[in-house]
């Protein structure tokens, strides 16, 4: 019995120390403060103006996420967004990404009101795409966690529009 518990204890210590080593290793990477939990591997722009500039320069659509820290719907969407590999991969490679916790002065970004969460796409010609909307007629740019497949389709639509129109 003594041997058994010593073995169990050493296995536990190994598990704890390797988890600790992994946590330390993870910590080494500078935290991506601009991600605010939407995806740490994604390169985020800091301002709407920077986003427009990068979209034009890179010929990628700009995706703008309006959200607030204390909004439960935003938190739920953020979790689903951050956990979805397809979204994260597209956001990393094909989009200029911006998440804002305040309203912009650009009225084109609130065509049907200033609600959160709200996700809008701006193409590289700097046109806000009023034709890429979510499923809700009362809040055109709102998405809920269960709308993630719909959001993926809209991201693909934004990419297709660039190829066909611009």
Which properties best describe this structure?
166 residues, 5 helices
Question: Care to describe what's here?
Answer:
There is one protein chain. This protein has a domain at 48-159: Glutaredoxin. Strands 2-1-3 form a three-stranded mixed β-sheet. By secondary structure, the protein is mainly alpha-helical. The chain contains five helices and three strands; from the N terminus they run ααβααββα. The N and C termini lie far apart (73 Å).
- Identify the strand order in the major beta sheet: 2-1-3
Low-confidence stretches: none
Strand content: 5-15%
Q: Using the 3D structure, state the CATH architecture of one domain.
A: 3-Layer(aba) Sandwich
Number of helices: 5
- CATH C-level label of one domain: Alpha Beta
CATH level-3 fold name of one domain: Glutaredoxin
Protein name: Anterior gradient protein 3
GO molecular function: dystroglycan binding
Family: Belongs to the AGR family.
Keywords: Signal
Could you give a short description of this structure?
By secondary structure, this protein is mostly helical. The chain contains 5 helices and 3 strands.
């Amino acid at each position: 019995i003594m041997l058994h518990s010593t073995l169990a204890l050493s296995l536990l210590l190994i598990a704890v120390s390797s988890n600790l080593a992994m946590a330390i290793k993870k910590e080494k990477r500078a935290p991506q403060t601009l991600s605010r939990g939407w995806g740490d591997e994604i390169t985020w722009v800091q301002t709407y103006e920077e986003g427009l500039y990068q979209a034009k320069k890179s010929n990628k659509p700009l995706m703008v996420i309006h959200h607030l820290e204390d909004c439960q719907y935003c938190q739920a969407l953020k979790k689903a967004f951050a956990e979805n590999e397809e979204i994260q991969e597209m956001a990393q490679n094909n989009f200029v990404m911006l998440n804002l916790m305040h309203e912009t002065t650009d009225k084109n970004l609130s065509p049907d009101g200033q609600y959160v969460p709200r996700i809008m796409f701006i193409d590289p010609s700097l046109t806000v795409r009023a034709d890429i909307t979510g499923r809700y007629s009362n809040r055109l740019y709102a998405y809920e966690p269960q709308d993630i497949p719909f959001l993926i389709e809209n991201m693909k639509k934004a990419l297709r529009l660039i190829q066909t129109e611009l």
